[in-house]
Amino acid sequence: MAEKKKKSAATSSSGASDSLLNMVWFGAVAYALFLFLVNAYVIRLQAIEEYGPVIHEFDPYFNWRATQYLYENGYKKFFTWFDHKVWYPLGRPVGTTIYPGMQFTAVFLKNYVFGESMTLNDICCYIPAWFGVLATILVGCIAYETSLSVNSGGTLIGVAVDALKGQYTKSEDMTAKSVTRRLFGYESPAVECAIFAMGFMGIVPAHLMRSVGGGYDNESVAVTAMTLTFYLWLRSLRNGEKYNYLLGILAGVAYFYMAAAWGGYIFVLN
Fold first, then answer.
1. Cβ pair 151, 127 in contact under 8 A
2. 181-183 vs 186-188, strand pairing mode
3. Beta-carbon neighbour count of residue 199 at 10 Å?
4. What distance, in Å, lies between the first and last C-alpha atoms of the chain?
5. DSSP string, 179-243
6. Each residue of 57-109: pLDDT tens digit?
7. Concatenated DSSP letters of 37-71
8. Which DSSP letter does residue 20 get?
9. What are the tens digits of pLDDT across the range 178-206?
């Protein structure tokens, strides 16, 4: 009886210790997530905070004009719009020489989300910052998915060798042999990888310069669509889940959205 009581007390103490550790871990993850995302947003708003919600640079201003025309005249006239104010003296058939995904996104947000509470100009100014934060989150999701034990055990060389032998790599060979911990239903250290990936993506100059407030250009929306495409594709490849094909379909929809927003869709296609 005494030994049973000791074992019971040890088990209870261990359970309390694990619960406390989980709470500390959850608090640290939540704080880091909040800190990285807030900083990603605040950094991108610096131009707006300093100069107000104004469109800057040349391409963003044309994109703003195209958005304004779409909002005031509808999509039918937009696709047949011939703009005599650009490409002088020839003019430009805008409807057939533009990637209109960003314009349709801004008009959708104006008509169905913000309404009269926010002007179209302000929406266009803030879209790069909004989508920059979304891209930061999606990069974290990609890092989490690729760091899961079920996805991080194999190597590219091993897969290539198996392919040369004319055989598929087994799922168990692709699963990491190291011990992972599950906290609140999420794997560690995959969560930590996701958090650090968000931190890097939030401040990486290559993305930051294309998603600053007022820089209403195609990449600000398309990079988010690209990361969404990659994440949904990776998530659809997870083994043993019945409805993964739906995620594959959504990856195709996300890719269509990206192709509609930016000519860089070829990067994904290749």
1. no
2. antiparallel
3. 20
4. 68
5. --EEETTEEETHHHHHHHHHHHHHH-HHHHTTSSTT---HHHHHHHHHHHHHHHHHHHT-TT-TT
6. 889 999 999 999 999 999 999 999 999 888 888 899 998 899 999 999 999 99
7. HHHHHHHHTHHHHHH-S---SHHHHHHHHHHHHHH
8. H
9. 545 665 566 778 888 899 999 999 999 99
Locate 247 and state its tokens: 């995620």
Question: Which DSSP symbol is given to 165?
Answer: T
Inter-residue contact 225 to 101 (CB < 8 Å): yes
pTM of the predicted protein model: 0.83
CB 207 within 8 A of CB 131: no
Is the Cα dihedral 61, 66, 67, 71 positive or negative?
positive
Residue 133 burial (CB count, 10 A): 22
CA distance 23 to 37: 21
Contact 67, 106 (CB under 8 A): yes
Scan for tokens 């083994």, then name that residue: 239
> What single letter denotes the amino acid at residue 210?
R
